[in-house]
Amino acid sequence: MSKALMMNGLTVPVPVIQGGMGVGVSLSGLAGNVAKCGGVGIISTAQIGYQEPEFGEHPIETNLKAIAKHIRRAKEIAGGKGAVGVNIMVATRRYQDYVKAAVKAGADLIISGAGLPTMLPSLVDKSRTKIAPVVSSIKSASVICKLWDRKYKRCPDLMVIEGPKAGGHLGFAREELEKITDTEYEKEIQGIMEISQEYGNKYGYHIPVVVAGGIYEGKDLEHALRIGADGVQVATRFVTTYECDASDDYKQAYIDAEEKDIVLVQSPVGMPGRAVNNAFIQGNGKEKSENWKCHQCLEKCNPEKIPYCITDALVNAVKGNLDKGLIFCGSNAYRAKKMEHVSEIMEEFKTAAGMCE
Questions:
Q1: CA-CA distance, 294 to 305, in Å (whole number)?
Q2: Worst-scoring range by mean pLDDT, 17-26, 163-172, 280-289, 328-337?
Q3: Which among 144, 140, 178, 132 has a CA at the least distance from the CA of 20?
Q4: In the structure, what pLDDT confidence band is assigned to residue 20 with cuts at 50, 70 and 90?
Q5: Residue 221 pLDDT > 60, yes or no?
Q6: Which of 130, 94, 127 is nearest to 110 (CA)?
Q7: Would you list the DSSP string of 151-219?
Q8: What is the pLDDT of residues 173-218, one digit of tens each?
Q9: Each residue of 266-323: pLDDT tens digit?
């Protein structure tokens, strides 16, 4: 029997969370199938409504409606198994409305990073939705736990530790990403676990810790469990699955990538990110088109100063227009050599969890 992941009354059989990937990479198709296999399927709310006809004129309102649609679809696919949650970036414009929409739609879990989710507890009050901050350092874990304790008299239901090998926007300075070693970062993980234990003891509840970034195969889960984590968050591995919501061309870009093709880029939102090197990156994103229109994705984006629109770049990529798209990925994307089914990957992780009993 594998080790279950227990989150303050919410239990899933396999200690694997599928990471949220926007725009449009992890929607109801992927999340529902991960949950169906006993894990936690996560829908990214980042421009989640991009496929809807109303998105161009009313992006935020369309996204809020799409949250409910995708949570419902994912739960139908899951058939009552596992759990279905969402990833909502703190940097999202009208963040509070996104959280409220997810709670109303019955999300089992909200994972929130790209900033510290200082107000998250107040937005899920009196609901059964569990909440998990994404932290990358001892400092950020301490700050969020202290604040939630003081202001809301509660602690996280789960903590996601996102390391330097993760994909997409990263919570590290570029210099840190280029220098930090696995051994050094494991010390940070241990420190975060100590904070988790401290606040868990205060509230009489074990706060599970899940590690993310560079997790690709069963042995990575085994290692995480051995150093004291309760599970892992996996994103990149699930991109090259038949059930992933991205286009086939997007998935093929991962399969075709070599290790040298995985590069660090500077996003127009001011954060470093990891992506597959392509014509778009080599052209520095090029200039915004004459018909460019703001899609209201981020709270602090200045449309006048950015070289290109992050929404347009990610939408182009997920649709398969790769030469005009930004293909975010984790450090292990080059290891993808074939298409797989979600069930095959989950079976691998389930076996690994059982070996660590």
A1: 12
A2: 280-289
A3: 132
A4: very high
A5: yes
A6: 130
A7: HHS---S-EEEE-TT-SEE-SS-HHHHHH--HHHHHHHHHHHHHHHHHHHHHHTS---EEEESS--SHH
A8: 888 888 888 889 999 999 999 999 999 999 999 999 999 999 999 9
A9: 887 778 889 999 999 998 665 555 666 778 777 777 777 778 888 999 999 999 999 9
Tokens 């150093």 — which residue? 227
* Distance set, CA 175 to CA 40, 152, 251, 331 (Å): 32, 35, 29, 16
User: ∠ CA 2-4-5 to the nearest 5 degrees?
Assistant: 145
Residue partners of 276: CB distance under 8 A and separation at least 6: 253, 254, 257, 261, 262, 263, 327, 329, 333
Burial of 51 (0-12, 13-18, 19+ CB in 10 A): middle
Query: Token digits for 336?
Result: 């993808």
The two tokens of residue 196 are 């988790």
The angle at the Cα of 161, spanning 159 to 164, to the nearest 5 degrees, equals: 165
Q: Enter the tokens of residue 69.
A: 């649609």
Give, in degrees to the nearest 5, the angle at Cα 331 between 325 and 332.
105
| CA dist., res. 209 & res. 339, Å (int) | 30
Structure-block tokens of residue 105: 């739609």
Residue with tokens 């968050």: 233
Question: How many Å apart are CA 291 and CA 210, to the nearest integer?
Answer: 42
Burial degree of 67 (CB within 10 A; 0-12, 13-18, 19+):
buried
Residue 290: which region, alpha, beta or left (left: phi > 0; alpha: psi -120 to 50)? alpha
Phi, psi (degrees; rounded to nearest 5) at 41: -90, 130
From residue 80, alpha-carbon distances to 6, 35, 301, 344, 350 in Å are: 17, 8, 39, 20, 18
DSSP-assigned letters across all residues of 61-114? HHHHHHHHHHHHHHHHHHTT-SEEEEE--TTBTTHHHHHHHHHHTT-SEEEE-S
Other C-beta atoms lying within 10 Å of the C-beta of residue 260: 8
